[in-house]
Amino acid sequence: MTRNDKHDPHGHGPADPQRRQLLATAAILGVAPWLLSACTAPSASTANTAAPAQPAGTGSATTTGILPTSQRRKLGALEVSSIGLGCQWVPAAVEGSVSDRYGSTIDRKTAINLIRTAVDSGVTLFDTAEAYGPYLSEEVVGEALQGVRDQVVIETKYGFSFDPKVAAARGGRDSRPEHIKQVVEGMLKRLRTDRIDLLYQHRVDPQVPIEDVAGAIKDLIAEGKVLNYGLSEPGIQTIRRAHAEHPLAAIQNEYSMLWRGPEAEVLPVCEELGIGFVPWSPMGMGFLSGTITAETRFVPDGDREFRVAVPRFAPDNLRANMALVEVVKTWAQRKNATPAQLALAWLLAQKPWIVPIPGTTKIAHLKENLGAAAITFSGEELRELNATVAAVPIQGDRLPPGVMQLSGVEAPPKR
């Protein structure tokens, strides 16, 4: 088992490992397996040999675990804690338990306690989606936040087609206005709330103009059911078009030291338009936590170990990419922090409107992650660190081909 973090259906897969991995990949975004038929798994893995966590230093960054209100950040006009909590869970093999997609399982009561501990520790932003489960994560989040709903911000996502009677994917994307409005009714019930603070389109629908999507959101905002909206992994022009219809609060994309793609176009557009940015997988699916080694092999486990299908974790690529982990560990020692804290602090230092949402199943890791807010860099340190990170070539794509093709999509023109 490895140190886990966020980001993107149930049951046991068939006997064939590649087919099982295909189903897991499809499940992460709620899409039909046929859509991801191009996906192939990396080299077969037989054992997980991750090293135990190795904290570097014992300063305040490793022990604080409380987010001060003075460090709140803005996603558009929405004020949130500087670090959020990603809640992406699917049913585990054991009934009554939930699993993240990175090899860790906890019972539902523990998941609820984790969320409540996050609230008590100053976290106000909680991220989920209808596709996570599907529905399960929203249900857990809704139950956990009863009694503290007015103290927090809930963000969730729509955009795929599910059969609500059996909680299973129908296949494909669906952002038709009538579908969005229907989906939101189900979300409100599962989240046990009367409004969604931030509602994302999970992936751009290539069949629906973004103007129609924004129009549906505006109707929901007028009804008070949605307060703010955003897009996840959209094309650049789609961001501009959506924002022109109604101001976007946030863009949610993968972003970390391991994947710096948003720096080219997405972050500049967000800065220009005053849109916040929420990085998913801020620790590179656990890679930057320092617990993964060159010898780590991810074991197929149905939909409960996504990294099996991710090219950058194939053995040869993983070995080459360890150079980045050494950079992170060196700087963590320099800043008296753990590697996980260093990775999160790096994100926080990039822009004041960036709010990472690391996920975890352990309260100790939650507290550790929140300690990142205490780490600061001088201008010279940040320039040096950025240059060092940029000098490490990363091998392997960040996602399987079938999932990659869902990112950066431009919505069709309005006719």
UniProtKB/TrEMBL annotation:
Listed Gene3D superfamilies: NADP-dependent oxidoreductase domain
Record-level GO cellular component terms: cytoplasm
Low complexity bias: start-end ranges: 46-65
Keyword annotations: Oxidoreductase
Chain intervals for the UniProt region annotation (Disordered): 46-66
Domain of life of the native organism: Bacteria
SUPFAM superfamilies: NAD(P)-linked oxidoreductase (SSF51430)
The keyword Oxidoreductase belongs to this UniProt entry's keyword annotation: yes
InterPro entries per UniProt: Aldo-Keto_reductase, NAD(P)_OxRdtase_dom_sf, NADP_OxRdtase_dom, TAT_signal
A Pfam family recorded for this sequence: Aldo_ket_red
Example GO molecular function: oxidoreductase activity
Keyword RNA-binding: no
Record domain NADP-dependent oxidoreductase: where: 104-387
PANTHER family for this protein: AFLATOXIN B1 ALDEHYDE REDUCTASE, ALDO-KETO REDUCTASE
Name recorded for this polypeptide: Aldo/keto reductase protein
Native source species: Azotobacter vinelandii (strain DJ / ATCC BAA-1303)
